[in-house]
């Protein structure tokens, strides 16, 4: 049985380091999965519903722990290189938000604001077997460690391309 790493106290030296981010981020791309095994649909804005998900996304109305999926823009070239491609389009990776400028791993277990929406990082967004079809043989492993973050919606609103992402 796997054990979880204890979260350091916010007052400890490690806790302070983990809470310190060099800057905020920015939403670069938004996509929705309308149904299982369907292509992502790129949008400029989407409504985020507290405890549910994104309007038009197949996960809307689920448990809420995966209400929004995020991936770092900086990881796209790494995934492309590891999968043997020159470029990977954001929709290929099946995440809702592509975010630049902020380390998403630092937001796991924390609340953060994306524009007017408040999210809470719930877990790593590990790749699924579909990455073999999307990226070719080895696509699953190319994404391991680079899959991004799942988040639940704490305070809903509209998410827009260009929104600022900041830890709370």
How would you characterize this protein structure?
This protein is α+β, with helices and mostly antiparallel strands and 168 residues long. It has a single domain, classed as PK beta-barrel domain-like (M1 Pyruvate Kinase, Domain 3, Beta Barrel). It contains four helices and eleven strands; from the N terminus they run αβββββαβββααβββ. The protein has a seven-stranded mixed barrel. The mean pLDDT is 90.
In short:
With 168 residues, the chain is α+β, with helices and mostly antiparallel strands.
Write the layout of secondary structure elements.
Layout: H1 13-19, E1 25-32, E2 41-43, E3 45-49, E4 53-54, E5 68-72, H2 76-83, E6 97-100, E7 111-114, E8 117-124, H3 130-135, H4 139-143, E9 149-155, E10 157-160, E11 164-167
Parallel strand pairs: 5-6
Antiparallel strand pairs: 1-2, 1-6, 1-11, 3-4, 3-10, 5-9, 7-8, 7-11, 8-9
Shape: globular
Biggest sheet layout: 7 strands, mixed, barrel
Report the strand count.
Answer: 11
CATH topology: M1 Pyruvate Kinase, Domain 3
Helix amount: 10-25%
Gyration radius, in Å: 16 Å
Number of domains: 1
Give helix and strand order, one letter per element, not per position: HEEEEEHEEEHHEEE
Judged by helices, strands and strand pairing, the structural class is alpha+beta
Portion in strands: 25-35%
Uncertain stretches of 5 or more adjacent residues = none
